[in-house]
Amino acid sequence: MNVTISPSSVSGTARAPPSKSYTHRAILAAGYADGATVRNALWSADTRATARAVGLFGGDVERGDDGRLEIDGFDGRPDVPADVVDCANSGTTMRLVTAAAALADGTTVLTGDDSLRSRPQGPLLEGLADLGATADSTRGNGQAPLVVTGPLSGGDVSIPGDVSSQYITALLMAGAVTDEGIAIDLETELKSAPYVDITLEVLDDFGVDAHHTEAGFAVDGGQSYAPTGGEYAVPGDFSSISYPLAAGAIAADGEGIRIEGAHPSAQGDTAIVEIVERMGADVDWDRESGTIDVAAAPLSGIEVDVEDTPDLLPTIATLGAVADGDTKITNAEHVRYKETDRVSAMAEELGKLGVETSEERDSLTIHGFESTLSGATVSGRDDHRIIMALALAGLAADGETTVEGADHVDVSFPGFFELLEDLGVALERRS
């Protein structure tokens, strides 16, 4: 599907979709348990991949009419899957499920789509091997397809922290049900640290103790997953909130936009509220009620460090394209290892719209003074966050902007374009 966006002003109320990060962890945590009900879960292409994996491990995930997920778990000991675990485009699924597979008494094969088969898994495979499992890349390049044979019993492991925080999440979640537990020694500085904080929060809500140590993280073995009352509620997603928030900062009329479901949590991407405010938009976040009000104002370029918030880079880049001055996004090298190289993707696609950028290995600078946003046809790169960020640029571009491959928003925000229409955006879908 291609979507064409015409310059538009926006107003009204937007509801934050549930958090993808929390939903992944909650589905798998309920799988590790006897079972649980997960309320307000995001049901998207990525989270469905995690649900399928729980089913292959011997659990069952049923979605009710009210959106609740009723999950029967595999009680800490996954079955050997009867089929290949297809993680589709979900990197979170692959990392978390690879560690779960190492608990099974047998061999699991995991794969995904072209994009996922190009993403790095080597440090996690090496870590699982150090813990007693057999974990290999079929092509010997540290990328999927993966073959994992367990069971592992736990122990001490060293792993880099600057490639993906999901390695640490995967080991902590699996380590709780091992005999010995797992202690993780970080070899390098941890990038995207708030995502591990999310993991610790979800584990605590499921009755599992995992914690920071001087060297990294640790989780005791022999624990059981069991949320209070058998239920867990997923909070709103600040990665997704970044899009209506940026839309308001770019194009809100006098009434502005109100975003609901924006309650505080461990998500690092709550930083988008401060970023938009620093750039000059009129923002008011009522944390108690979980609402954010935003109105457009002249935006100015700033410097933003995305070491802990890699998913915000596309949104910030679009904000920089409509701002005066330079917007420099730093500590961004790990953003190159997402669904696509998001640093280069945003530089190249914004360039098609007339935006001047400077790209270095670990940074992206958007030169607002030297840019004139003009409608053009751009590629979504099969990446949900690139698609949504480019759609926002279309709100302020001179002429129509067509985003190719826009159906990939289903990965994290299935109702994204419907939300834009509800806010007043003029857009057209074409198959």
Estimated radius of gyration: 21 Å
Please give the domain count: 2
Backbone structural class:
alpha/beta
Average predicted local confidence, pLDDT: 97
Q: State the low-pLDDT regions, or none.
A: none
The main sheet orders its strands as: 22-23-1-24
CATH structural architecture of the largest domain:
Alpha-beta prism
Question: What is the β-strand count?
Answer: 24
What top-tier CATH class of the largest domain fits best?
A: Alpha Beta
Shape estimate = globular
Helical residue percent? 25-40%
CA-CA gap between termini: 4 Å
Continuous helix count: 12
The CATH superfamily of the largest domain appears as Enolpyruvate transferase domain
Strand content: 15-25%
Task: Note down, in words, how this protein is organized.
- The protein has 431 residues and is α/β, with parallel strands linked by helices.
- The protein folds into two domains: 2-17 and 236-430, Enolpyruvate transferase domain (UDP-n-acetylglucosamine1-carboxyvinyl-transferase, Chain, Alpha-beta prism), CATH 3.65.10.10; 20-233, Enolpyruvate transferase domain (UDP-n-acetylglucosamine1-carboxyvinyl-transferase, Chain).
- Helix content is 30%, strand content 25%.
- It has twelve helices and 24 strands.
- The chain has helices spanning 20-32, 45-56, 91-101, 122-130, 166-175, 193-205, 238-251, 271-278, 313-322, 342-352, 384-396, 416-422; strands at 2-5, 10-15, 35-39, 60-63, 69-72, 85-86, 107-111, 134-137, 146-149, 155-159, 182-186, 210-212, 216-219, 231-233, 252-260, 282-286, 291-295, 303-305, 326-330, 356-360, 363-367, 377-379, 401-404, 427-430.
- The strands form six sheets. Strands 22-23-1-24 form a four-stranded mixed beta sheet, covered by helices on one side. A four-stranded mixed beta sheet has the order 2-15-17-16.
- Helix 5 links the parallel strand 10 (155-159) and strand 11.
- Helix 5 (166-175) packs parallel to helix 6 (193-205) and helix 7 runs parallel beside helix 9.
- It is globular, with a radius of gyration of 21 Å.
- The N and C termini lie close together (4 Å).
